[in-house]
Specification:
Largest sheet: 6 strands, parallel
CATH superfamily: HUPs
CATH architecture: 3-Layer(aba) Sandwich
Number of domains: 1
Number of strands: 6
Order of helices and strands: EHEHEHEHEHE
Shape: globular
Structural class: alpha/beta
Number of helices: 5
Radius of gyration: 15 Å
CATH class: Alpha Beta
Strand order of the largest sheet: 1-6-5-2-3-4
């Protein structure tokens, strides 16, 4: 059974929504070797980070942190600078390395969904893990359309819902 066939479709992208690791393991029963974790280091403790660490306990993948704050076309004036974003990722990676050593940070700060997917291809990602608060960054029209009007993800995208959110 291939995991991408099990994902709940969301316009233009193969996205599933989960609340915990058990939901993920039901969707993706195969081993994950390379995980791309989109994060906002300025946010409160992130449920997607918790899920990523639980995936690490089960399969031991290489986890790459990508700063999701750069993916907005809406409020460019409030975006962190590239230096701030990389420093935030570095600090987060040091915090996480206490629990899981195989963490790297993306030197690419994607400004579009296409750039995020390029990073996923470069890292040979099996899965993109995205915290729910960052999903609005994927709603901007410039992020969800390219020449053909459709972007194809190189791997499944899983949104980790906040516990108090509704589906």
């Amino acid at each position: 059974m291939h995991a991408s066939k099990l994902l709940t479709p969301v316009p233009n992208l193969p996205i599933a929504r989960i609340r915990n690791t058990q939901d993920l393991f039901a969707l993706v029963p195969r081993q994950i070797s390379n995980l791309l974790l989109v994060v906002d280091p300025a946010a409160e403790p992130d449920s997607a980070l918790v899920v990523a660490l639980e995936i690490a306990e089960r399969w031991g993948p290489q986890i790459t942190l990508v700063h999701g704050g750069m993916l907005s076309g809406w409020q460019l004036s409030t975006e962190p600078s590239a230096e701030t974003a990389l420093a935030d990722l570095l600090c987060l990676s040091w915090q996480v390395k206490g629990e899981y050593r195989d963490i790297s940070i993306s030197q690419t700060l994607p400004h579009s969904l296409a750039e995020l997917f390029d990073e996923a291809v470069k890292r040979k990602a099996d899965l993109i893990l995205l915290p729910e608060p960052l999903t609005t960054r994927f709603q901007h029209p410039e992020l969800v359309t390219l020449g053909s009007g459709r972007i194809v993800s190189p791997c499944p995208i899983v949104v980790v819902m906040e516990s108090e959110s509704e589906w």
